[in-house]
Amino acid sequence: MSPELQKKLIDDHPELYRHELPFGIECGDGWFDLLDQLSSQLECLAGDIPKNSEHYPFATQVKSKFAFLCWYGENLTDEMEATIEEASQRSKVKCETCGKPGKVVQKKRWYVVCCEEHA
Questions:
Q1: Residue ranges in the chain whose pLDDT is less than 50
Q2: Do 9 and 27 form a contact (C-beta atoms < 8 A)?
Q3: DSSP assignment of 37-77, as one string?
């Protein structure tokens, strides 16, 4: 993800991304809206947990793997895990580059989701 969009995501959801991600957010800009929506949903699901609490959920890694979004974290409830899985499923039909509808394709040795333009 571009540094600008990554900064926006972290600035908009500082508690979820309070720990530095060693490799940053490892996916294309096309999934920004998906990640922003997922982050908002996770914040809502955190409910009454104080944002400055050690029990508040947080991301440990965010990346594209085998053509779908992987959001790994700590302090996640079962409902949060299910929400992450739903976002991962939605990523399988959204171009990772631009966000338009896409499908899984193999590029060299990697599986990615691309629209016709980026395939």
A1: none
A2: no
A3: HHHHHHHHHHTTS-TTSTTS-EEEEEEEETTEEEEEEES--
